[in-house]
Every structure is written in C-alpha cells, then in structure tokens.
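TICKET: design request
STATUS: open
ATTACHED STRUCTURE:
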C-alpha cells in the first residue's frame, strides 16, 4: 500500500466516519504525507494521477507547532485543509471558508493569518502555530487561561481563532503596528493597546454567540501581564 493510501485508509468492513470520508477526499484537494520527501527539500511541483484525475502536487517542508512535516499537497489546497484533514490538527475551525469569520486564524512567522485563504504551498519553510501549539504541555498559554477565567466563549467554535488572533495582535501592538483607531502612529502606547484598540484589532474575528465583552476582558488581562488570573 502506498504512502498516499496509508494516509487515508480505513478497513472495508468498518463503517467509514465523516472524518474518514474527508481524508479520502483530501487526496484530491487536501494534503497527503509523502514518504520520499525530506524536510528542507526545495519546493517542487509534479503532476500525479489520483483516481484517474490529474492533480498537481507540491512537495513542501512545513513547521507546524515546532514539528517538521514533509508533505505533498495539491497546489490548490489551503493551509486550513492541510492541517485539519492532512495532519489531524483539527483545532483550527472552518467557519465561512471565505475569510470573513476568523475562525481559522493561525500564526505564520509571527503574523496572524486566515488559513482558509492561505495556500499550503505559500507556507513552505515557514513556522506555523495553530491553537494546538500555544500550550506548554498541560500548562495553558496565558491567553487560553484568561479565556477560561473570563468565560470568553460560549459554543467555542470561534475560540481557537479568537485566541490565536489575540496572541498575535498583542505582539503587533508591541511592534507599533497601527490600527484604524491608533491616535499616534509613531508611538507605542505604554501598557499596550487600549480597550478600543483591542476591539478594532479583533474585529475580524466573529463570535456569533456575542461573547465580545468577555473576550476583550480576557485580552486586557493578558495585556496587563496577569496571566489569566484576575
């Protein structure tokens, strides 16, 4: 059995799950582990026949949450589909799949990005952090702890994207990156972004449950260095 088939195989006498079906579909539009690729190998593109269909695949070296992966992906595959269906990192959520809700937000080389609009091929050699990579073992990241402490979630579907966005957003503010409501673009405000700044900078992350006040409270807690404790 080839590596591609091993990646998505399930026993024929078993009832396939929804996840099994998605993995099979990933052969055409997602990511597959590629046994012959070494991490660090330069980007290369080849055309393969998968179930009678010509699919152009790219051999990539991805660093996800500090771990190196050698993968071959359909050149059309998004980073979101690659990490969820290819690497079983399902924390990042597919909400709108159009870059409008922010549920899929990850951190790429220190910048928050919408993984549904980012091609996996664009991330070759880059460092990607998903929600799974924020905690240190059993110890939550301060932003995760703050979201729990302030009950900054309800259904939780948008929470991975909210947290990744919040972590990167505070770093953006530290660097002095301006937002729409920045008063003085030449200064870095002491104490971090104001509440209005936080609201504006997080406006791309939609919470359909309406937990926005608590989300902002949690971010302010981390901004103030309280690490999730009130």
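STATUS: resolved
RESOLUTION: sequence designed for all positions
ATTACHED SEQUENCE:
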């Amino acid at each position: 059995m080839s590596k591609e088939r091993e990646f998505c195989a399930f026993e024929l006498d078993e009832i396939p799950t929804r996840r099994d079906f998605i993995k099979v579909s990933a052969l055409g539009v997602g990511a597959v582990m590629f046994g012959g690729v070494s991490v660090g190998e330069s980007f290369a593109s080849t055309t393969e026949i998968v179930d009678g269909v010509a699919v152009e695949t790219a051999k990539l070296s991805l660093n996800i949450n500090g771990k190196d992966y050698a993968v071959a992906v359909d050149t059309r595959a998004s980073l979101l589909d690659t990490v969820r269906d290819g690497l079983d990192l399902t924390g990042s959520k597919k909400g709108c799949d159009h870059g409008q809700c922010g549920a899929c937000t990850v951190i790429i080389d220190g910048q928050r990005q919408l993984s549904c609009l980012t091609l996996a091929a664009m991330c070759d050699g880059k460092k990607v952090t998903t929600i799974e990579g924020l905690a240190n073992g059993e110890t939550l990241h301060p932003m995760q702890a703050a979201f729990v402490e302030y009950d900054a979630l309800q259904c939780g579907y948008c929470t991975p994207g909210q947290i990744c966005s919040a972590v990167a957003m505070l770093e953006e503010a530290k660097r002095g990156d301006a937002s729409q409501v920045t008063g003085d673009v030449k200064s870095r405000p002491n104490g971090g972004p104001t509440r209005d700044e936080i609201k504006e900078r997080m406006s791309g992350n939609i919470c359909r449950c309406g937990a926005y006040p608590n989300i902002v409270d949690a971010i302010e807690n981390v901004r103030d260095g309280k690490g999730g404790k009130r």
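CLOSING REMARK: The mean pLDDT is 84. The first strand starts at residue 31 and ends at 33.
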